[in-house]
């Protein structure tokens, strides 16, 4: 009987959800790789159902935006609707920005350009949807992805307000936090893909800080800061700092609308750590000093914390 997975090497053939064990074997200068399938083949009916499902929709989808500090909140599949995912958001500000990301992978971002939906790919930097509303609005966001013969993926994103709450009903701690500006690092250590929030430094009400790991073997790492995580509100060094030996601390300019056109802060390993162990990854603490009174950023500084050794 012909194997229902068809074709040669049927014991290795896979299907959506199949699990494998992969081994790397090392013997002196020789290397080899082998693998084995751990999952049992599905029944004929089960396999037919899997293959009939639109493979483009297989995966998990997450919403990320200003409402969750650009972390990931999973959108749940809608029962009975293949390729439809939804989530409800509670607004704490007068509008929110967001994108959709597949499998928590920033290189699989779904985004908007001139009201068209694109992705999943890595081209969505700063291309966000904007939800207009008021604090207390509860908004349902729906994402649809399907494949139509001859036209590739068909993507859509929509939202609508499903109910409203009074401000007095909102979480007081979060309501207070949302009224304050928040600041996020972006940097060359991960090709400016991920936002990392600067958090209050213990014991100092006027300083925010974050620890980053910069790659080994690179003399320079660069970064900027996003106001409220928005690529359209970029904090950066003023252009007059060019050529100045100001790696230790510097003034803050912006926010600017174009991250690519704005200046960047540059961490030079030779200046920070005296050039030692430059081949190893390094931990750096970046600090943002806030102006007393209005809490607006006034200075950026950083310091080397040590080298990261494999297995340490």
What brief labels describe this structure?
nine-stranded antiparallel sheet; 312 residues; six-stranded antiparallel sheet; mainly beta
Number of helices: 3
Average of per-residue pLDDT values: 79
Overall spatial form: globular
The helicity comes to under 10%
Strand content: 35-45%
Count of extended strands: 22
The end-to-end distance, rounded to whole angstroms, is 54 Å
Uncertain runs are 1-8, 241-248
- Helix/strand structural class: mainly beta
Task: Give the radius of gyration.
Answer: 24 Å
Helix/strand order = EEHEEEEEEEEEHEEEEEEEEEHEE
Any overview of this molecule?
Helices cover 7% and strands 44% of the residues. Strands 3, 4, 5, 6, 7, 8, 9, 10 and 11 form a nine-stranded antiparallel β-sheet that branches. Strands 12, 13, 16, 17, 19 and 20 form a six-stranded antiparallel β-sheet that branches. The protein has a five-stranded antiparallel β-sheet with strand order 14-15-21-22-18. It starts with 19 loop residues before the first strand and ends in a 5-residue tail after the last strand. With 312 residues, the protein is mainly beta. The relative contact order is 0.10. It is built from three helices and 22 strands. It is globular, with a radius of gyration of 24 Å.
């Amino acid at each position: 009987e012909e194997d229902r997975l068809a074709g040669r090497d049927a014991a290795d053939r896979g299907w959506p959800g199949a699990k494998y064990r992969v081994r790397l074997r090392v013997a002196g200068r020789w290397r080899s790789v082998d693998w084995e399938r751990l999952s049992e083949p599905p029944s004929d009916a089960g396999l037919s159902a899997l293959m009939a499902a639109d493979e483009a929709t297989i995966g998990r989808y997450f919403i990320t935006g200003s409402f969750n500090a650009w972390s990931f909140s999973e959108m749940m599949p809608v029962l009975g609707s293949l390729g439809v995912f939804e989530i409800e958001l509670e607004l704490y500000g007068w509008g929110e920005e967001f994108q959709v990301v597949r499998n928590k992978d920033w290189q699989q971002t779904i985004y908007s350009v001139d009201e068209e939906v694109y992705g999943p790919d890595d081209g969505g930097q700063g291309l966000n949807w904007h939800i207009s509303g008021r604090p207390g609005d509860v908004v349902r966001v729906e994402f649809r992805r399907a494949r139509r013969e001859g036209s590739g993926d068909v993507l859509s994103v929509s939202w609508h307000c499903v109910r409203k709450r009074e401000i007095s009903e909102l979480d007081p701690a979060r309501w207070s936090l949302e009224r304050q500006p928040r600041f996020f690092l972006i940097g060359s250590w991960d090709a400016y893909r991920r936002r990392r929030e600067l958090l209050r430094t213990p014991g100092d009400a006027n300083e925010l800080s974050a620890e980053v790991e910069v790659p080994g073997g690179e003399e320079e790492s660069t970064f900027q800061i996003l106001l409220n995580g928005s690529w359209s509100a970029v904090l950066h060094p003023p252009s007059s700092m060019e050529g100045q030996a100001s790696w230790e601390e510097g003034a803050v300019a912006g926010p600017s609308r174009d991250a690519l056109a704005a200046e960047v802060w540059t961490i030079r390993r030779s200046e920070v750590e005296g050039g030692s162990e430059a081949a190893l990854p390094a931990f750096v603490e970046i600090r943002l000093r806030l102006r007393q009174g209005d809490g607006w950023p006034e200075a950026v500084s950083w310091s080397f914390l040590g080298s990261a050794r494999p297995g340490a």
